[in-house]
Amino acid sequence: MSGFLDNCQWPKCDCIELGERRNSVASIVSGVMFFAGWWIVIDAAASYPSTTDFNHAYHTPGVIGTLAFFLINSVSNGQIRGESYTNGCLGQTGARVWLFIGFLMSFSALIAASWILFGFYVVSKVSEHDWPGIAVFLQNALIFFSGLVFKFGRTEDLWS
Questions:
Q1: How far apart are CA 139 and CA 60, in angstroms?
Q2: Distance from CA of residue 148 to its chain's centroid?
Q3: Which candidate, 66, 85, 119, 134, has a CA 20 to 30 Å from the CA of 51?
Q4: Domains identified in the chain, total number
Q5: Structural domain contains residue 123
Q6: CA angle (29 as vertex; 24, 31 as ends), nearest 5
Q7: Which positions of the chain have pLDDT values less than 70?
């Protein structure tokens, strides 16, 4: 069951052939998205310094998403498939559990950001400003997608 998508191929697009620049492009796009996410929430915190407009506890999903970003990308695809990581106390199973915990934290941060946006800013109208809630959601969405781009946008074939 683990390799049922191995034979599926994306359609070839000759106009976007990156070749050896694929890792560089994926890293730059991921970094820009990660930076933009934190920049947006820093802007909201600077624009609304009052705790009534933007509670500073709402930074927690962004921190958890950042930790999840590092957890997800600290395990290579070869370790997940069991090709390059055979030693250690848990081996391939430990790498898969580590990746699962990273994705679990990432999804949890995104769900918490959605809850903050809709629960505190859209529905109950704690503040007359909606931008802090939108900023928290955008931050976590950008961190989540930057983690996906950095994990799955790069290739390990060039490292050999």
A1: 11
A2: 6
A3: 66
A4: 1
A5: yes
A6: 95
A7: 1-7, 10-19, 84-89, 157-160
Lookup result for tokens 């310094």: 49
78 within some domain: yes
CB 91 within 8 A of CB 57: no
DSSP secondary structure code for residue 103 in this structure: H
Is residue 87 in some structural domain? Answer: yes
What pLDDT score does 102 carry?
A: 96
Token pair 């999903």 is at which residue?
A: 61
Domain that holds residue 96: 22-154
Cβ atoms of residues 122 and 134 within 8 Å: no
Domain annotation covers residue 9: no
Residue 32: both structure tokens together: 């820009």
Phi and psi angles of residue 38, each rounded to the nearest 5 degrees, phi first: -70, -35
Cα–Cα distance between 134 and 116 in angstroms, integer? 9
Look at the pTM and tell me if it is higher than 0.85.
Answer: no
